[in-house]
TrEMBL record:
Region annotation (Disordered) ranges: 292-312
Protein name per Swiss-Prot or TrEMBL: ABC transporter ATP-binding protein
Domain ABC transporter residues, every copy: 20-283
GO molecular function, one term: ATP binding
Family: Belongs to the ABC transporter superfamily.
Lineage summary: Archaea, Methanobacteriati, Methanobacteriota, Stenosarchaea group, Halobacteria
Keywords, ordered alphabetically: ATP-binding, Nucleotide-binding, Transport
GO biological process, one term: transmembrane transport
Length: 444
């Protein structure tokens, strides 16, 4: 793979085609691990001291297209790269690699004045309506500011447009001279909307725009955004971690995990026929509205791994309940399912120390898989069992659990296709005729 932003020539813009196309877009950050931790000394080099920065792979090789007038929902847990992707599309962050075509023009090629001009077509709404509005400016000035920056209209024209936009977003134009603190959270987000729309953009990245609002206010703001989309012919990339918000507003949905898009489909297809284990886990984690139920229906196990050193192959594999059996062992589906559950329990240390026979009974119904797989499992059990040999009595407890984890992960998890190849499969759809892509080897 080449490094650096590719400088492809502009392409013909097909007005029936996508408004925005991403091809292999990555955004990596350099991160120093501590004040001196990254310093390396090598007397054979000049200069002899260098800083070894870790690379955070926040967004990694993302390709997708957004059609004019649609809302593409982008969902995933916090820290999965959604906001970084939104900012990279708008070139608020420089892409490390890849191409971003907006109306056929490669944004990666643009700089200076050309980029500034293009920015009026592409706006962003941020999560926190409080901090994104300057408290010292009156609402009218706030809405006029982008128009002024892009030399749109004269003073009178800008004032008239600001008042008109206040009305369009559901606020009273007579409040033009008020300061942001006089408005509620929902109203402040409406001011943000008016400001973004002031320069008549085609495309708006909405980064968690309703997450800070009460649920009752969320629906009202979302409805306003939908109305404005129709009226102004807008295209939205709508970023949210909340699936019910995504379901309300999106036409299509992209699910992001640790810098990769793992599933992409029309909204109905994604919600009714999810095919990626991560999407399924997210859907099962939606809180149940029934007050007699507590908590959520399912929980994603474990933490999102560090984007500095993401898992090979499928990035979800360290948390995936469906990890595919490695080849080379002769076992039944049930034996693999038992081994997988045992491996996860050892890794997360989710059971109290007990005798080997009890571990065998609890995880394997009293009978281990046959052949080499069984011998490896047996070895792992004997590392953590309370009745392991007397010679091991002095061993450190956590070291033995770590050794059992390494043994199982290296023998089984690292040998799975899930660890060896990055998945990407196009699937047949059950709802509608849009594309359905899932990055999961279960569909190989
Ligand atoms: S590729 Fe493997 S690890 Fe990844 S989601 Fe599919 S089954 Fe799970």
């Amino acid at each position: 793979m080449s490094s650096g932003v590719r400088l492809d020539e502009e392409r013909e813009y097909d007005r029936d085609g996508p408004l925005l196309e991403l091809e292999g877009v990555s955004k990596h950050f350099a991160q120093e691990s501590g004040l001196l931790a990254g310093l390396e000394f090598d007397p054979s080099e000049f200069p002899p001291i260098s800083v070894d920065r870790e690379r955070v792979l926040a967004v990694d090789d993302v390709s997708l297209a957004i059609q004019p007038g649609e809302t593409l929902g982008l969902v995933g847990e916090s820290g999965c790269g959604k906001s970084t992707l939104g900012r990279t599309i708008l070139r608020l962050l420089e892409p490390t690699e890849g191409d971003i075509y907006f109306k056929g023009e490669n944004l990666a090629d643009l700089g200076g004045e050309a980029l500034r001009q293009r920015r009026s077509d592409m706006q962003m709404i941020f999560q926190d309506p409080q901090s994104s509005l300057d408290p010292r400016m009156k609402v009218g000035q706030i809405i006029e500011e982008p128009m002024r920056a892009h030399d749109m209209l004269d003073d009178e024209g800008r004032r008239a447009r600001a008042k008109e936009l206040l009305e369009k977003v559901g606020l009273d134009p007579r409040h033009y001279n008020r300061y942001p603190h006089a408005f509620s959270g929902g109203q402040r987000q409406r001011i943000n909307l008016a400001r973004a729309l002031s320069v008549d953009p085609d495309f708006v990245v909405c980064d968690e725009p309703v997450s800070a609002l009460d649920v009752s206010i969320q629906a009202q703001v979302l409805n306003t955004m939908e109305r404005l989309q129709d009226e102004f012919g807008l295209t939205y990339l709508f970023i949210a971690h909340d699936l019910s918000v995504i379901r309300h507003i999106s036409d299509r949905v992209a699910v992001m995990y640790l810098g990769h898009i793992v599933e992409l489909a029309d909204k109905e297809e994604l919600f009714e026929n999810p095919q990626h284990p991560y999407t399924k886990a997210l859907l099962e984690s939606i809180p149940v509205p029934d007050p007699r139920e507590t908590g959520s229906r399912g929980v994603l196990e474990g933490e999102v791994p560090s984007p500095v050193d993401p898992p090979s192959g499928c990035r979800f594999r360290t948390r995936c309940p469906r990890l595919i059996a490695p080849e080379g062992y002769d076992w039944t589906d049930e034996e693999w399912a038992q081994t997988r559950a045992f491996m996860r329990a050892i890794k997360r240390r989710t059971f109290e120390p007990m005798a080997a026979a009890r571990i065998e009974a609890e995880f394997f119904g009293g009978s281990l898989p046959g052949g080499e797989a069984g011998s490896i499992v047996d070895e792992a059990i004997s590392l953590v069992a309370t009745d392991r040999g007397a010679d091991a009595d002095g061993d450190d407890d956590s070291e033995r659990w770590a050794a059992a984890t390494d043994l199982l992960l290296e023998a089984f998890a690292a040998e799975s296709i899930c660890a060896r190849e990055r998945p990407a499969y196009e699937l047949a759809t059950e709802y509608g005729d849009g594309e359905h892509v899932a990055a999961c080897h279960l569909h190989r």
